Amino acid sequence: MVGNHGFIDANKRTAWLLVEILIDRSGYILDIEDDEPIDDLVVAVAAHDLEFEDLSLWFKQRLVRDK
After folding, report:
1. 24 inside domain
2. Residue 55: inside a domain, yes or no?
3. Residue 3 lies in a domain
4. What is the pLDDT of residues 40-60, one digit of tens each?
5. Buried b or exposed e, range 1-19, using 16+ CB within 10 angstroms
6. Does residue 4 carry a pLDDT above 70?
7. Considering the domain boundaries, does residue 4 fall inside one?
């Protein structure tokens, strides 16, 4: 979603919203600080500056099963 630019605007925001919905529907939450630089993460993914393995590790370190 981030890389294909399906919309004129808001591709990164839409992609992040889809990630949040997927996480929630999978029974997980993201254990992140309120000031975690999510924008930087999404921009890095869109710019291909973040390898899949690094992104996967980022999520593995922060995903927690919802109670």
Report:
1. yes
2. yes
3. no
4. 999 999 899 999 999 999 999
5. bbeeeeeeeebbeebbeeb
6. no
7. no
Q: Give the confidence band of 67 by pLDDT, cuts at 50, 70, 90.
A: confident
Q: How many domains does the chain have?
A: 1
Q: Where are the beta strands (DSSP E) in 1-67?
A: 28-30, 63-65
CB 64 within 8 A of CB 28: yes
Residue 37 CA from chain centroid, whole number: 11
Q: How far is the C-alpha of 67 from the C-alpha of 64, rounded, in Å?
A: 9
Model confidence over 21-36: pLDDT tens digits? 999 999 999 999 999 8
**Is the pTM above the cut of 0.70?**
yes
How many residues can be counted in the chain?
67
Q: What range does the domain containing 31 cover?
A: 11-65
